[in-house]
């Protein structure tokens, strides 16, 4: 028998799938008319939501398989990459303007995405590292750094 199946938290999995399906229903019900008017496909935004959900689950599985020790090694690089992506939207050829604001990043054939969403996730992982036992010893200094960063964001 597979040990991963024995350790599965089925209640959490049920809640996760339920919230995912609820989100799909909300996206479709709130955007189907606009999607049909703009793109001729009432499920346009739903399809994009499903695509990004699967991409997110794939990345989540990879991060889960990496484990916390390997994540600690790369969290600083990921934070730096997140900051670079946030500023990259302001360079010609990378930023995409929508609704009067340039917040979307386009990289080659990939669909445009908001780098701040990735940076927020990386920031939370970085804070977890900072406040862990292996992180910065002076917790007051770390708290001040986190507070300043939060104010600036």
Task: Give the total of domains.
Answer: 1
User: In what range is the share of β-strand residues?
Assistant: 5-15%
Q: What share of residues is helical?
A: over 70%
Secondary-structure content class:
mainly alpha
Instruction: Find the count of extended strands (DSSP E, 2+ residues).
Output: 2
Overall mean pLDDT score?
85
- Largest sheet: spatial strand order: 1-2
Spans where pLDDT lies below 50 across 5 or more residues? none
Backbone CA Rg: 19 Å
Distance between the termini: 48 Å
List the main descriptive attributes of the protein structure presented here:
single chain, globular, mainly alpha
3D architecture notes:
This protein is mainly alpha-helical. 71% of the residues lie in helices and 6% in strands. The protein has 5 helices and 2 strands; from the N terminus they run H-H-H-E-E-H-H. The protein has helices at 3-6, 10-39, 44-88, 115-130, 139-152, and strands at 95-98, 101-105. The protein has a two-stranded antiparallel ribbon with strand order 1-2. The chain is globular and about 55 Å long. The mean pLDDT is 85.
């Amino acid at each position: 028998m597979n040990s991963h199946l024995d350790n599965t938290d089925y209640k959490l999995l049920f809640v996760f799938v339920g919230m995912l399906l609820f989100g799909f229903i909300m996206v479709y019900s709130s955007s189907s008319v606009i999607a049909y008017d703009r793109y001729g496909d009432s499920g346009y935004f739903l399809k994009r939501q499903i695509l990004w959900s699967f991409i997110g689950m794939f990345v989540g599985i990879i991060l889960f398989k990496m484990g916390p020790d390997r994540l600690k090694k790369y969290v600083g690089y990921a934070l730096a990459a997140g900051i670079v992506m946030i500023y990259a939207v302001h360079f010609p050829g990378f930023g995409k303007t929508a609704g009067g604001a340039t917040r979307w990043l386009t990289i080659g054939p990939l669909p445009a995405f908001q780098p701040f969403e990735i940076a927020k996730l990386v920031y939370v992982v970085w804070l977890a590292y900072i406040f862990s036992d292996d992180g910065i010893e002076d917790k007051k200094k770390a708290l001040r750094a986190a507070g300043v960063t939060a104010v600036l964001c």
